[in-house]
Amino acid sequence: MIFIIVPTIAFISFLLGKYIFNRWFNHLSLFTFIWTGMILFYELRLLPYKEIVPATWIFIISTFLSLILGTLTYLSIRKLFSHQESKTEINKLSFNNLFADDAKVVKYSLFIFSFISIAGAIQHWMVLIDMFGSIPKVFLNALTIYRLNTEAGGIKGQVPFVSNFGYVAVFWGAVYTAYKGKFTFLSILPFIGIIIKETSTIGRAGILLGLFEFIFVFLLFRHCLTINDENKFRFSKPNATISITFLLALLIFAASVVKISRVSFEQYQGASKTLRELEGNLILSPSVYLYLSAHLGVLNEFVNRQDERNVFAQNTLLPLYNFLDRLDVVERPNQYQKGYFIPMWVNTGTFIRELFADFNVFGLLLFPYLLGLLMTYLWFRLVKEGSLYILVILSYLYIIIGFSFLVMITRTSYWIISLTLNILSIFIISQIVKRKQNKKAAILLGTSRS
Hints:
This protein is an all-alpha fold. Helices cover 70% and strands 1% of the residues. The protein has one domain. The N and C termini lie far apart (81 Å).
């Protein structure tokens, strides 16, 4: 029955999103796609998962309906206060100024941010090599490194935050790619620093964040560029296919290296015959299935027990707690959530778990409602104004939706730090372009007078 009801609701949701935003890509369709996929994967029961209890279904449905209600609320307000709407035309002034020199400033900035990120990632590796003696020994001690990063708060000697410039490079790489209408080496360059950094921390979430950021910025910015002229920014299909395949292969390879470093052999008790046949597969393995489905099992166990005691907003605002802890204002809460055996040990249980743990039932109703309201508002503002500031904020809200199957991504430092760095980079690059244009105008004015 689940395999009929869930796809039916998903289909209706996709149509609703298309009707509201006139695009198949929107936050409603994204949330629907992610959660439909996770639910169906879970219900395949390739591992001996428990049946989802009614309370868990209520949590999921309440969150989804709140997101829709927030979206519809803004549409109602917009319709109420716009008695006579003219044809929507994007204000491309800021975009045109930014690309007046054929995006040379953006291009050089992209190089700079990428190489800062790569330099920071290499510095992390140099510290690890100094600790363990060689690159192979670093991978042999992957679990030790992972524990140091997760439990001890990091490794001494590694320069913090520098590698976050990789996400700034990803933002400008997506903008540059959408503007040029084709994928180039500059589309891939920003990911090099992120991959090097994540392999040094034995982590994968940062790679996923970079991928989500690129996709969302690219699709939103390209939507702005094509709103009035569908042909001007049309992509070459062969170029797009080859480039996307190469990028995904690179990211999957990096994630697989991390996976192999953590666990050399996969064997899950109670796995179905189909899943056991995938043991040892580099890409399609039991851990991939676990990664795409297990978080719903943790949510289900969390809802069924409800025995956790959390500090107010400790997941949603964890970076703030970490900052206040350094100032000795408050004690930092536990960095990582409680794990459950479902039947493997997993501690991430979707953003629904963390919203309920932080704010009780109000978290499930109010946060998705405000998220849907704000994202819908920013969507129409972006189309109308063409502001890069709105673009980056909206993209990072999309990242919250993208990570909703896993965690509340705002709990990570690199989400808030990279968002802040992106906003600062927009201001700096805009000022550089402005001064360059003023200088050029002054030269032209002096030439005309002479």
